[in-house]
Structure formats: structure tokens, C-alpha cells
Specification:
GtrA family protein, transmembrane helix, transmembrane, elongated, GtrA_DPMS_TM, GtrA_CellWall_Glycosyl, about 80% helix, 5 helices
């Protein structure tokens, strides 16, 4: 979220707000994967499968964030920072469940 806000301020005002989301996504993908895998879901094994699934869930979140921010800021005229917090917060909740039940899902016998 902080990277998105940073890009909102650094990019020229003529650029679509959604570009800030895409740039932040690109910069944070690797760190987010490691943090989710080790700190949030604490899983082992299946690194490549987990990464591909993580990217799939995050890509859906990226599209929702870009569309939501574009709609809120550039179409509805909402203030950038509050709109960013609300849109990204809602998408983050959805992404958590996507990661829990898809990206880092383990079968019951693998969890033992």
C-alpha cells in the first residue's frame, strides 16, 4: 500500500492511478511471496507450485486493485489516499482467502 501511495505522488498527474498499483505490485511480489510463505502460512515444500499459485491470486488482486483505484479516483473523484486504503484493504482480505485456500493449501496428511 505504501508503494502505491508513493507512486501516486511520484507519477505525473496525467498518468492513470492504476499505473501506481502495477508498479508497486512489480516491486513487491518477491518479498510478499516469501513473507506469506514463511510468516503468514508457514508452509514447506512445493515452492514452485506455491509461487505460480501466489502469482495467480495476486494477479487477480492486481486487476481488482487497478480497476477499483481507477474507478474511485479517476471516475468518481475520490481522494487518492483514502481510496487507496479502502480498495486495497478490501482486496487484501479477499487475497488472504485466495492464498489460504489455493496458493498455500496443503492436504491434511501433508500438514501433519
Amino acid at each position: 500500500m505504501a508503494l502505491t501511495v508513493m507512486w501516486l505522488y511520484l507519477l505525473p498527474g496525467s498518468w492513470p492511478s492504476a499505473v501506481s498499483v502495477a508498479l508497486a505490485y512489480c516491486l513487491s511480489l518477491g518479498v510478499a511471496f516469501v513473507a506469506h510463505r514463511t510468516l503468514v502460512f508457514r508452509v514447506r515444500g512445493h515452492v514452485l507450485r506455491d509461487f505460480v499459485r501466489f502469482v495467480a491470486v495476486n494477479s487477480g488482486g492486481l486487476v481488482l486493485n487497478m480497476a477499483g483505484l481507477q474507478l474511485a479516483v479517476d471516475v468518481l473523484g475520490c481522494p487518492k489516499i483514502p481510496a487507496t486504503v479502502v480498495v486495497m484493504g478490501l482486496v487484501a482480505v479477499g487475497s488472504f482467502f485466495g492464498h489460504r485456500y489455493y496458493s498455500f493449501r496443503r492436504s491434511p496428511e501433508a500438514a501433519s
